[in-house]
Design a protein that fits this description.
Elements (H helix, E strand, L loop, with lengths): L16 H25 L7 E5 L5 H10 L4 E6 L2 H13 L4 E5 L11 E7 L8 H11 E13 L5 E2 L3 H16 L10 H7 L3 E8 L2 E2 L3 H12 L1 H6 L5 H16 L4 E3 L2 E8 L2
Parallel strand pairs: 1-2, 1-4, 2-3, 4-5
Antiparallel strand pairs: 5-10, 6-9, 7-10, 8-9
């Protein structure tokens, strides 16, 4: 859902550029409360060096920069230059110790350079998530933390039942699978962490749910942003996608309905 990064230019189902920046701003607002709780739980401190992999518009990178202060540094990497430009402007505006690089996870070569390496909604899009996680582990110092937040998309829910929402959930999953990703990677994360050699692996599961506000709008916006991939893959026509988006918008506007994010697995562990 979040990262605009991908192992190749055609393997990411969501739109990049300016549309991505707008979507990620809404997502960041809706998702921040649970990410904030996670970062507090793992004790991000002054002076730490942090890496945010697939940082998108830098929302989490900038929050990390606030926490580590002038004696630390937060680095964000992503492939989408438009999102990175937005992130750099924000860092300059607030004078935060954040650096943003145009870089893919598959190009990450740093070794023991950080105290903390973080990724949110990135591994779900990758054909080889274990390899990418190993790169994250290599980049962190012994005793440092690797943290991942990722999704189980099939666990989305709404109430009352909405056919357009069910179509959205099915189409998103199929589109990601056809690009080589795993839309339901969340439950696999603990095993991936253990296989990568991380110690003291811990888990929390959250699922923000909304009856109004930006979080409730994410489903219809995401559906609109996967239209190109869905149509290219022959999963639905442009008209069918537009109808789904319109019906989701109508469902979202009703204050009596509720709509969730995917189930989100927060997993973290220490490098031995």
């Amino acid at each position: 859902m979040e990262s605009s990064q991908s192992p190749s230019n055609d393997s990411y189902v969501l739109l990049g550029g300016e549309p991505a920046t707008k979507r990620l701003k809404l997502l960041a607002r809706a998702k921040w409360p649970t990410t904030k709780t996670l970062l507090r739980r793992v004790s991000v401190r002054k002076g730490m060096r942090c890496l945010d992999v697939g940082c998108g518009n830098g929302a989490v990178t900038l929050r990390l920069a606030l926490r580590v202060g002038s004696t630390g540094q937060a680095v964000g990497i992503d492939r989408d230059e438009r999102c990175l430009e937005f992130a750099r402007r924000k860092a300059a505006q607030y004078k935060l110790p954040a650096v943003f690089r145009a870089e893919n996870i598959t190009d990450l070569r740093e070794v023991q350079a950080y105290d903390l390496v973080y990724a949110r909604f990135l591994l779900t899009h990758l054909a080889q998530p274990a390899e990418s996680l190993q790169r994250m582990v290599r980049a962190v110092q012994p005793g440092g933390l690797v943290i991942v937040e990722d999704i189980e998309f099939a666990a989305h829910f709404c109430h009352p039942p909405c056919p357009a929402f069910s179509q959205y959930v099915d189409l998103y999953q199929e589109a990601v699978k056809r690009k080589g990703g795993d839309p339901n990677i969340g439950p696999r994360l603990v095993s991936l962490f253990l296989d990568s050699g991380l110690d003291d692996v811990q888990l929390e599961v959250v699922q923000p749910t909304f009856r109004n506000g930006p979080g409730k709008r994410i489903a219809s916006i995401t559906m609109a942003h996967i239209q190109e991939a869905v149509v290219q893959q022959g999963l639905a026509s442009a008209t069918e996608v537009e109808d789904i988006v319109a019906n989701l918008d109508q469902f979202t506007a009703d204050c009596r309905t509720i709509l969730s994010f995917p189930r989100i697995f927060q997993v973290w562990g220490r490098k031995a």
